[in-house]
Amino acid sequence: MIATGRASYFLMVRALREAVRQPIVEISNIFIPMFFFAVTVGAIGSVAGRAFGVTNFLGFQMPVAILQAVAGAAGNSGLGTVQDIERGYFDKLMLTPAPRLSLVMGRLAADSVRSMFLALLIVIGGLAAGSGMEAGPLGFLLLIALAGFFGMAYAGFGVAIALRTGSAQAAQASFLVFFPLLFLSPAFAPKEVFAPWLEFLATINPVTYVLQGMRDLVLEGWDAGSLAGALAAIAGISAFTLSLTLFALRSRVA
Amino acid sequence: MTAIVAEQLTKRFPPAIDAVAGIDLSIARGQVFGFLGPNGSGKTTTVRMLTTLLRPTSGRAAVDGLDVTRHSSEVRRRIGVALQDAGLDDLQTGRELLALQGLLYNLDPRRVRERAAELLEVVDLVDAADRWVKTYSGGMKRRLDLAAALMHEPKIVFLDEPTTGLDPISRESIWRYVRELNANEGVTFFLTTQYLEEADRLADVVAIMDRGRIVAQGSPAELKASIATDVITVRIDGAGGALERAAGAVRRIEGIEDVRTVDGSVVIYVRDGSRAVARVAVLLEEQSVHVDEVTLAHPTLDDVFLRSTGHHIEADEHQAEAAS
Predict the structure, then answer these.
(1) Closest to A95 (Cβ–Cβ): which among B81, B91, B106?
(2) At which of B192, B223, B254 does a domain end?
(3) How does strand B2-13 pair with strand B58-63?
(4) CA of B84, closest CA in chain A: separation in Å?
(5) Are residues B86 and B102 in the same domain?
(6) Partners of residue B259 on adjacent β-strands
(7) Residues B103 and B126 reside in one and the same domain
(8) Phi/psi of residue A111, each to 5°?
């Protein structure tokens, strides 16, 4: 366990160094969500109160921008893994005595840090524009931490695809899968105004709970049930993606 | 004591391709073992099994006395490996890459810094140590890859085609490091190559691999001596069945051991080549065969390969290059 943690730390540092040395990747990860954030709030913000009773649409949308940015960063993780495989560097790592789990955990931990950094930028932007933070400074920190946990959990999906296929195109699919999950959640309006079929899909969609947990920190303050739902959803996504990743890793030495 | 052992080691890929078809190896400590064969002969698959990257379909292998399947983690701790394509991270510097490698082998951070500095000097990369790997030439990458394989001071090192695609100067450098490490530190090398010269000059023992099987094994001198003949190669204008006519004619000469037709040439194995060459020339003249060139040579590893497999390794190399 110590060996796994130690090796994961070294590999996390390496993956973060890789991210710092390709700033254009992070710029695109932050630019697109911020653009949608601004456009959505500009287009719907003034009618959101009358249309579905959301008076602080800026705060309502901020977690959506965070999740978009985090999913984008997580998608890059799969691409990074594919590049390591294509260059033969992944084999080089597999040839070290580092526990195989650490080869995955190092990259996922780096994704968690990258996700928190992107979330931080978005929250600072949102606060500057007047979103507010009902849960206060601790809520602010928890919001960033939730982004990190979700980033780590979701990145496992891209890494699993990358390990299984070794294909950059396939690894990018993990980001595309996120869009249906986001649109099938109460991303742009409360679930209560959805048609029954959409409300049902939103109810069984784990992203709904992550979004709700984050949103409540911004709009409502502390809500233990909502936070527990968010953490449980992230834990569920983690368990699923990590299992896929370990299965894919095992198949590489078949 | 034995460094590497394989018994009936086999790797079958679906649907039924035997990339490695039951090979036996026994490599002594301190030996430079050359694994010679053309592209696709099964060399890399063998290396990947011996280094725990690929699970054998059947048979067994042990490295440093440890079974590669059951004790894979411990095997990895004891070996150094530089695979065919230098597996490096372009966005790290050479020094960072070596440091990470050392840390993953649980070396103390201070020892990591010292060892990285030592190896950068050994492989002549001190000036480039703090540049990103993506700025390195192919030869520099290979040298860095070799240094990475040596970070934890392994006593058994696998080098999979370490000089393929390198210029002669870089190739010579790699050979020098291998010789020095072998002579000074007793490191055992398992070296795959498709270059005859590399196997001939570096290896104490050579195994020749073709289509998943070992077709000959021994020291380069033993293998060449096993042919026990000189080799006359006659390049012929092959129009009108001249090649077959020439081969048929020379087979009748006394003392001829074997005759093969390969790539527009008749290759003749004969005990006393200097005496036979004149008779060959006269006989072909009588047969109205147009001869472009006649050469007489002592046997090379390529001749051993040709005798064992029926085709040249060099021709396969050229075909591979043409294909790429």
Answers:
(1) B81
(2) B223
(3) antiparallel
(4) 9
(5) yes
(6) B268
(7) yes
(8) -65, -35
- Please check whether residues B69 and B32 belong to one and the same domain: yes
User: What's the structural domain count of chain A?
Assistant: 1
Cα gap B170→B182, rounded to integer Å: 19
**Is the pTM higher than 0.90?**
no
Note down the domain range covering A44.
Answer: 30-88+108-251
| Per-residue pLDDT tens over the stretch B135-167 | 999 889 988 998 999 999 999 999 988 888 778
In chain A, the largest separation of any two C-alpha atoms, in whole Å, equals 61
How much helix, strand and coil, in percent to the nearest 5, is found in chain B? 40, 30, 30
pLDDT band at B228 (very low <50, low <70, confident <90, very high): low
- B68 and B176, same domain (yes or no): yes
Task: With CB atoms and an 8 Å threshold, state whether B91 touches A93.
Answer: no
> Do B65 and B179 belong to one domain?
yes
Residues B231 and B192 occupy one common structural domain: no
pLDDT per residue over B82-138, tens digit each? 987 778 899 999 999 999 999 999 999 999 999 999 999 988 899 999 999 999 998
On whether residue A203 sits in a domain, the answer given is yes
Q: pLDDT class for B314, splitting at 50, 70, 90? A: low
User: Is residue A103 assigned to a domain?
Assistant: no
Nearest CA in chain A to B74: A97
* CA distances in angstroms from A61 to A66, A178, A183, A212, listed in the order given: 9, 17, 13, 11
Any chain B CB within 8 A of the CB of A204?
Answer: no
For B131, which DSSP code?
S
Using a CB–CB cut-off of 8 Å, the residues of B that contact A are 51-55, 73-74, 76-77, 79, 81, 83-92, 96, 100-101, 103-106, 132, 148
B203: containing domain: 2-223
Å from B176 to nearest chain A CA?
23
Provide, as residue numbers in chain B, all residues whose Cβ is less than 8 Å from the Cβ of A97.
73-74, 76-77, 104-106
> How many structural domains compose chain B?
2
ipTM of the complex: 0.86
> Is B191 found in the same domain as B150?
yes
